[in-house]
Design brief:
single chain; 28% strand; six-stranded mixed beta sheet; FAD/NAD(P)-binding domain; 345 residues; binds flavin-adenine dinucleotide; 2 domains; alpha/beta; 22 strands
């Protein structure tokens, strides 16, 4: 299928806190942004790794959780109407004859802009996959690495694989709605929180779910739809477990991914930038947030916010040298206030 080329001012790769704040800073200058993330929702590490943990070092927010911070950044960016392309990885980058950059994603979305902002943090989060030989036969239809809607699993037979917090939490949460939940873990100790493990074992004791210590040794089903898993327990017993969905929760790993091939100067998986502009060695490509490096870099959300502000101004001057930049303060500049939709206040 050929996809239409979308033209915009700025393509932001990564919707972590820093990518989201870059929408705001670019928006103040009148720039329209398209964002790409391989996760299915914005928020980066804050949402994926610690949504409910309080953060204590965001200026003027004595405490804010990862989830609250991302919700507020989305609200702050909303006057500028950013477009999100989620669940797809920015894969290919090509320079066009007019000097603009064209990004193609793994879902075939094609976007062109004079400015690319690499805000990819440590890279793409990808789930660690179990080493089961037949896994690829079932991955499309009946293996899920994340729970997006619990309702999908109502009255289904689920096998959850893993012993960390996600595996334990989902086994407990899905047990009341699934037809049956079986947790398979390779040893009789859990990595997840002690209290959660106790809660899980109590439910198993009451017969509300099953826990098997051992490994999945075979998978069977038709046309990608699982029907049964073979589990070999630590005692050597071989059990057949009926299964509609397998949910492996074995943790996430982070990979810089395709960006490593984009001809940017890298220093131990970080993109080198000029700290006065956040330009990379490629004209029109900027890097901000955890992924960028320069002398004195501190990897914090607050430094990423500052980097977004400097980047937006320097990228504006590079891409639109003939346009007048709205300078000054949000408190006093009427052009900026109009863009924010607060003109008459
Ligand atoms: C447990 C924990 C606690 C923390 N606590 C604090 C704290 O208290 N204070 C603080 O300041 N910082 C804290 N941090 C660090 C903070 O989360 C990071 O500094 C911040 O998330 C960096 O933001 P970012 O936008 O640069 O990148 P990220 O949040 O990493 O977001 C990058 C996004 O880019 C996406 N991506 C990557 N490659 C691609 C690609 N090729 N295509 C599409 N999308 C891509 C990723 O999926 C991800 O969503 C903590 C981190 C952790 C893990």
């Amino acid at each position: 299928m050929t996809h239409k080329v979308i033209a915009t001012d700025m393509i932001i790769i990564g919707t972590g806190p820093v990518g989201l704040f870059a929408v705001f800073e670019a928006g103040l200058l009148g720039l329209k942004c398209h964002l790409i993330d391989n996760l299915d929702r914005p928020g980066g590490q804050c949402i994926e790794l610690y949504p409910e943990k309080p953060i204590y070092d965001i200026p003027s927010r004595p405490t804010v959780t990862g989830e609250e911070l991302v919700a507020d950044l989305m609200t702050q960016a909303s006057p500028f109407d950013p477009t999100f392309h989620l669940s797809q990885q920015a894969e290919a980058l090509e320079r066009q004859p007019n000097g603009h950059w064209r990004v193609t994603t793994t879902l075939g979305t094609v976007i062109e802009a004079p400015i690319i902002v690499v805000a990819v943090g440590a890279g793409s989060f990808v789930p660690k996959k179990p080493p089961f030989k037949k896994l690829p036969d079932f991955e499309e239809k009946s293996v899920d690495y994340a729970v997006h809607k619990m309702e999908k699993y109502r009255d289904k037979r689920l096998v959850i694989v893993g012993g960390g917090d996600s595996a334990l939490d989902w086994a407990i949460n899905l047990a009341p709605i699934a037809a049956r939940v079986t947790l398979v873990h390779r040893r009789a100790e859990f990595r997840g929180a002690h209290d959660t493990a106790q809660q899980l074992l109590a439910l198993a004791g009451k017969g509300d779910l099953d826990v098997l210590y051992g490994n999945v040794t075979d998978m069977s089903g038709d046309n990608g739809q699982l029907s049964q898993l073979e589990v070999t327990t630590l005692d050597g017993d071989v059990k057949q477990v009926d299964c509609d969905y397998m949910l492996p929760f074995m943790g996430l790993k982070v990979k810089l991914g395709p960006i490593a091939q984009w001809g940017l100067n890298l220093d131990r998986k970080h993109v080198q930038v000029k700290p006065e502009t956040f330009e990379t060695t490629q004209e029109g490509i900027y890097a901000i947030g955890d992924v960028c490096t320069y002398p004195g870099k501190i990897k914090l959300i607050l430094t990423g916010f500052y980097e977004a502000a400097v980047m937006a101004r320097s990228a504006f001057k590079y891409a639109f040298p003939d346009r007048k930049m709205a300078g000054g303060y949000t408190t006093t500049n009427s052009v900026i206030q109009e863009r924010l939709g607060v003109g008459d206040k």
